[in-house]
Amino acid sequence: MSKPDSITLALSRRLLSRLEPWRAAVAWRVAFSGGLDSTVLLHLLAELARVHALPPLTAVHVNHGLQAVAASWPVHCRQMCQILGVPMEVIDVQVRPGASLEQAARDARYAAFNSTLGPGEVLLTAQHRDDQAETLLFRLLRGAGVRGLAAMPAQRPLGAGQLFRPLLDESRATLEAYAREQGLSWIEDPSNKDSRFSRNYLRSHVLPLVTTRWPQAIASMARSAAHLAEAQQLLDELAMQDLALADTPCPWPWLDMPSLELAPLEALSPARQRNALRHWLAPLTRLPDTDHWVGWDSLRDAGPDGRPIWRLADGQMHRAEGRIWWLSGIWLKNVAGSQHWSMASQPLALPGNGMLQILGAAPAGGLHVHYRQGGETFDVPDRGRRDLKRLLNEKGVPVFLRGRLPLLYRGEQLLAVANLPGLDASPRGDWRLHWLPPTNDQSLS
């Protein structure tokens, strides 16, 4: 017969072993809801800290305010932290209503963790093997791909630090046994019994039925998630190899905008194209579902005179001059109007369009900055007066960029077009019009 403390000793040893790579972290922060899982994790860590040199430990409680009963939870959590001698931070969040309350609450929670995590710090969360199986099944029913079916990674970057799930290989039964052995008390969230929420339905109705017929189903599904995570790692490595061929220098180095050369992508099979683009788009936007990838086919296969745009959740992909370009944030808003430049020796802030400056001795006279309206002409040395549209065509300027290029006027005379060699300077070469475009704002990331 096992000793009464066998579960405690075995679980403590396994946890300490998994945490070994993170022992040099600046601090450990524990996501502490007060429920069973996070209570066990916090208790384990507090006990380990008594006999081992560990990073400073802090509990972080996120208060969603979704239920009246939740008002008492921070009090319970503070009492538990006082008993364990662990400082605690409470973060109040507002959950934005949406199609899925579960997802909205999760988004709010991780946004809070993201904001509180400093450089070199690690957020420890208490998801376990049963959670992993539940996540795999939930995503499978939603038609997820390999990345989604890999379920929850053991670790990933979060904010300025890292997230680590040290209990991901432990069963819920093990955590319950530890809690009973230690005489712990925890919060029972009544919403966890509400089967209207998809995950609760899987947890309370589907998985118990499955494990009645296949007792090892939870462990098997968690193992499958690990296999899929390994497959996703291989797909990511393949994507990086393919993207390296397409990540060629942009013709306009001053244009700080994600772009890829199209030809190397077109040489790949359609499946490898999608794999590479998923990897490239992942930090830029929420990825499209299966049906929406027809937008990529249309963009890729458009004729040379086409101006295809693939509209995604958080931006747009454009095709121009043999490249694909990612536009988001401020780049999706039009610029217009004119500005008087009374002190041309000083940089000029362009509303919604970066900064403009004249390098060298600024030309005399009343200067104005305008944007293209159509019909502009420009005096080109040794070529005479030329239509600006034709000059932009000759230089291969993408259509999405043309309306943003600042034009410098003196009276009715167009003096320069910012950043375009041969059009951006005086004929004598004593000054040049330099534009610092706005950054490609990523609102999602």
UniProtKB/TrEMBL annotation:
ATP binds at residues 33-38. The N-terminal region contains the highly conserved SGGXDS motif, predicted to be a P-loop motif involved in ATP binding. HAMAP family: tRNA_Ile_lys_synt (MF_01161). GO terms for molecular function: ATP binding; tRNA(Ile)-lysidine synthase activity. The lineage of its organism: Bacteria, Pseudomonadati, Pseudomonadota, Gammaproteobacteria, Pseudomonadales. GO terms for biological process: tRNA modification. One of its GO terms (cellular component) is cytoplasm. It is an enzyme of class 6 (ligase). It catalyses: cytidine(34) in tRNA(Ile2) + L-lysine + ATP = lysidine(34) in tRNA(Ile2) + AMP + diphosphate + H(+). It holds the Pfam family TilS. This is tRNA(Ile)-lysidine synthase.
